[in-house]
Design brief:
Blueprint (H helix, E strand, L loop, with lengths): L4 H19 L4 E3 L1 H11 L5 H11 L3 H13 L7 E7 L5 H8 L6 E4 L3 H10 L16 E14 L5 E4 L15 E4 L6 E8 L3 E9 L4 E7 L6 H17 L14 E2 L3 E10 L5 E9 L2 E8 L7 H8 L5 E11 L3 E13 L6 E11 L4 E7 L17 E8 L9
Amino acid sequence: MTLTAADVAVPLAGYARRLHAVAGPRHHVASPLGAWLLLALCAPASQEDIRDSLNGTLGCDSADAAEIAAGLLAAPHPAVPAAAGVWQRHTTSETLERWLSGLPPQVETGPLTTQAALDDWARRHTSGLIDRFPIDIGPAVYLVIATALATRVSWERPFDLAPASALGRSSPWAAELRQVLRTPEGPGHQQFVAATQAAGDVAVHAARARDGLLVVSVAAGLAVPAGDVLAAAYELAPALATGRSVARRSLFDLPLGDGPLWAITERTAQIKSGEPREERCAAVLPAWTAQSQHDLADPSLGFAAAAQALAPGDPWEARQAAMARYSRTGFEAAAVTGLAVALAMRVPRTGLVRTAELRFGRPYAVVAVSVDTPDSRRPGHPGPWHGLPVFSAWVADPEDAGEA
């Protein structure tokens, strides 16, 4: 059976909720996929109760998770280089030897040498975006497992710049910032209001990059918990990337006026469609940068079970280093996850036009999803990365937008 991104969408969304819940509602970026892949690679070593625990954390059977991980590493996405490695020294066991022999051939293996060597591995596999391995390797450490993901892409159409006041009077960021990003006219950006189960009506913006990445921002009402907003983003982003339908709200069903998430106006103007009325949306959102270090020790994240499967009773540490930058011209992100064990015109017509400006003026969720490129797309045969969320963030600390 060939498994694709669709097979991991629900399990990964569940795992992302766990990871972002541990990180909390602070400004941060993470790669739930990077952590999930590491657990999936470890899962074949597990047995009985530990396997049941990992199945619950992974959201699917360990064998299926391992097959998905192997498929993703065997067919890397051009916009999201992925790598995995396992290094060991001194101590070994029958369990470790069996597990090592069953790893996918794309997993780098070898002797565990120095911290500098692991730092160099992190730099090489993230294009220099992560310059240090997230775990300090002491002399007692004998096994290290790691995954790395990175992307650096340019938008199909760069944003325009706008004054921060465009975020609206109710936004706390409007007074803190000088400039923000505004969507340009033309292809490359989508923005609309969506109805979601997790977070109710939300503002959605999706920016498409040139090399096969879709970055989706989702803002909800102030009373909606961060976890529910992220859950809505993990529902919407893969659907938009793969062309599945989403529940878009008509602007004519929403009240006119100025609100925290959008301002809706109405006027008579020329319209492009043949209908008597038309809807238009734009979006304003801040630029942002995030650098995060995540301790993955929380039992809900599965690394305790993975370490127990590989090396029962031995002390362990699991961490992830992640970064992301969202700017006028593009998006870049990277994450290294480590587990260490020690001993788109017609003739214009006149009609009614309702316009919304969506405002990402307070903390919101972002999910970056890989999509097939025109060169790799085969109708009816999506690649293993198509529609797969690779990075996600909770944006709570914006910065001024610039020309770059």
